[in-house]
Amino acid sequence: MSKYNLIFFIVFLCLGLRSSAFTNLNTLSFEESLSPLFGDGNLVRSPDDLSVRLLLDKYTGSGFISSNMYQHGFYSSMIKLPADYTAGVVVAFYTSNGDVFEKTHDELDIEFLGNIKGKPWRFQTNLYGNGSTHRGREERYRLWFDPSKEFHRYSILWTPHKIIFWVDDVPIREVIRSEAMGADYPAKPMSLYATIWDASDWATSGGKYKVNYKYAPFVAEFKSFILDGCSVDPIQEVPTDCSDSVYFLESQDYFSINSHQRAAMRRFRQRFMYYSYCYDTVRYPEPPPECVIVPAEKDRFRDTGRLKFGGIEARGRRRNRRQQRSEIESDPDERRRF
């Protein structure tokens, strides 16, 4: 063990940091929890049925869906994204009930938006309630690591009171339900989906860069599935009592954000978020009711909700990468999460 790693290990033990919110959780096989959605031969299950590869080629993408619908839940998977040039390729991990409630559907999204080789991966989170697709609540971010090099855990928590999006042990977004949100808060049973597909018309730099099938097949890998929630039939006459399931979800570590995770979320949003609908006064002259306006963020995002070139994002790119890494490694909490 190097001197630096030994010092870090001692500091870590002394701090007694809380363990990950995702340890000691039961993972499921594909057969136990999921079903193929589309793509036929482009969905490849491992021999032990514990992982699956989704492929996109010039003929089709692919996807899977949870075998059940859930009234609230925790949805999580380890995911490794396609490598090299992936402009226009979208890998999505999301919940939806659009197949059952076509005009009033709910949705919670994590969507990876492809990248040009050598550029950082970008992704977005979004939520819709009761068909409010004209009132999208998207935020866009960069990742602090290369998601094609190794697996990372991506998770969505959805309860009657809050929604949290996680990347590994970092909560990147929290939405607290308010009465003012009304039906815009997702409330109907949803299935879990994962898909890979061609979104050349919008995904990478607004559609400037298209899918290049010279690099096909594009492969996304999923494993270590977690689906905790109340399994329901959304059209049954007598609603299922899901109070025990909600109690279970709200008793888990992933329901609460501790002080270290709260600090990590604040740092992530300061450094890696480059669009927020809450500051987009062109779309929303009055911020939607769940938005918590942070004055420093409002100054950075101006009126469009998007960081301008030449602003903090560009300055961040000009910073010496070695200096940025040293800042992270100098703080054990930061290094653990970033």
From TrEMBL:
Recorded coiled-coil stretches: none
GO biological process: cell wall biogenesis; cell wall organization; xyloglucan metabolic process
A single GO molecular function term of this UniProt record: hydrolase activity, hydrolyzing O-glycosyl compounds
Region of interest (Disordered), residue spans: 312-338
Main location: secreted
Composition bias type Basic and acidic residues, residue spans: 324-338
Record-annotated active site: E107, E111
Enzyme class: transferase
PROSITE patterns: GH16_2 (PS51762)
GO cellular component: apoplast
UniProt PTM comment: Contains at least one intrachain disulfide bond essential for its enzymatic activity.
Protein's cellular compartments: Secreted, Cell wall; Secreted, Extracellular space, Apoplast
Domain (GH16) ranges: 2-222
Extent of the signal sequence: 1-21
One Pfam assignment: Glyco_hydro_16
E.C. numbers: 2.4.1.207
Entries under InterPro entries matching the protein: Beta-glucanase-like, Beta-glucanase/XTH, ConA-like_dom_sf, XET_C, XTH
Alphabetical keyword list: Apoplast, Cell wall, Cell wall biogenesis/degradation, Disulfide bond, Glycosidase, Hydrolase, Secreted, Signal, Transferase
Similarity field: Belongs to the glycosyl hydrolase 16 family.
UniProt xrefs under PANTHER family: XYLOGLUCAN ENDOTRANSGLUCOSYLASE/HYDROLASE PROTEIN 8-RELATED
Protein task: Catalyzes xyloglucan endohydrolysis (XEH) and/or endotransglycosylation (XET). Cleaves and religates xyloglucan polymers, an essential constituent of the primary cell wall, and thereby participates in cell wall construction of growing tissues.
Stated name of the protein: Xyloglucan endotransglucosylase/hydrolase
Natural source organism: Brassica carinata (Ethiopian mustard)
